[in-house]
Specification:
Rossmann fold, 9 helices
C-alpha cells in the first residue's frame, strides 16, 4: 500500500515587528498549540501597505531582532522573503512564493482582531483566502466595531465568528517605542537580547539623542 504523505501545517505571522515583543511570541505559541501547527514563520515586511513608516526601523534591524528573539526556540523561524523582494509588501505575493516552494504545506496566516476589520482592503483578498487559512485572535484593549465591514466574500465574513480568545497580553510595538523615546524601561516587554540590540544600535531614540 502506498504511504500517504502527511501535510505540514505552517503558521505565518507577518508585520513590521517594530520591534518584536513578548506579545508576538506568546501569540505564536498560542497558535502553535491550539491549532496543532508544526512551526511558525515570522515574516517582517519591507514596507507595509497600510501603515505610517516614519518610525519604522531599517529592515535589517527588525530582521536581526526577530532572529535574536527566537534563536533558542526550534519551533520558530524567520523569513526575509519580503525584505529581499523589496517595495511594498503584500501578503498575497508572499503566500504565492511560499506555496511555490512548499506545494504540499497547509498555511495558516495569524492575525489580530484589529487586522480582521481591514482584511477586506488587502490586495487580492479573495485569492488569498483560497491559498491560506486565517487564524484570528482577540487583541487586548481593542474594541471591535458594531458592524462588519461590507464584503461579498462569505469566507471573510465567517472569520468574524472564529475569533479565538487566547492569552491576552496588553503590549504593543508602539508602546515599546514610546517608552524608549521617553527614557523608560522596556524590560520584560521584549526579550532580553532584543532589548540589548535596541540599545546597542540606538533604535527608536529621538533624532537629537546621542549615545
Amino acid at each position: 500500500m502506498e504511504r500517504k504523505e502527511l501535510t505540514e501545517r505552517i503558521g505565518l505571522i507577518g508585520g513590521t515587528f517594530n520591534p518584536i515583543h513578548i506579545g508576538h511570541l506568546l501569540l505564536a505559541q498560542e497558535a502553535l498549540e491550539i491549532y496543532d501547527l508544526s512551526r511558525i514563520i515570522f515574516i517582517p515586511c519591507f514596507r507595509p501597505p497600510h501603515k505610517d513608516t516614519h518610525s519604522l526601523a531599517p529592515a535589517e534591524h527588525r530582521l536581526a531582532m526577530i532572529e535574536s528573539a527566537i534563536a533558542d526556540d526550534i519551533r520558530f523561524e524567520v523569513s526575509d522573503i519580503e525584505i529581499k523582494r523589496g517595495g511594498v509588501s503584500y501578503t498575497i505575493d508572499t503566500v504565492k512564493e511560499l506555496k511555490a516552494i512548499n506545494k504540499t504545506a497547509r498555511y495558516f496566516f495569524i492575525i489580530g482582531e484589529d487586522t480582521l476589520e481591514e482584511l477586506h482592503k488587502w490586495k487580492d483578498i479573495s485569492t488569498l483566502l483560497e491559498l491560506c487559512e486565517f487564524i484570528v485572535f482577540a487583541r487586548p484593549g481593542y474594541q471591535s466595531s458594531s458592524s462588519r465591514p461590507p464584503s461579498r466574500l462569505e469566507a471573510l465574513q465567517k472569520l468574524y465568528d472564529s475569533v479565538k480568545h487566547g492569552r491576552l497580553i496588553e503590549v504593543s510595538s508602539s508602546e515599546v517605542r514610546y517608552r524608549i523615546a521617553e527614557g523608560m524601561s522596556i524590560r520584560y516587554l521584549v526579550p532580553r537580547l532584543v532589548e540589548m540590540y535596541i540599545y546597542e544600535h540606538n533604535l527608536y531614540r529621538p533624532r537629537n539623542h546621542k549615545k
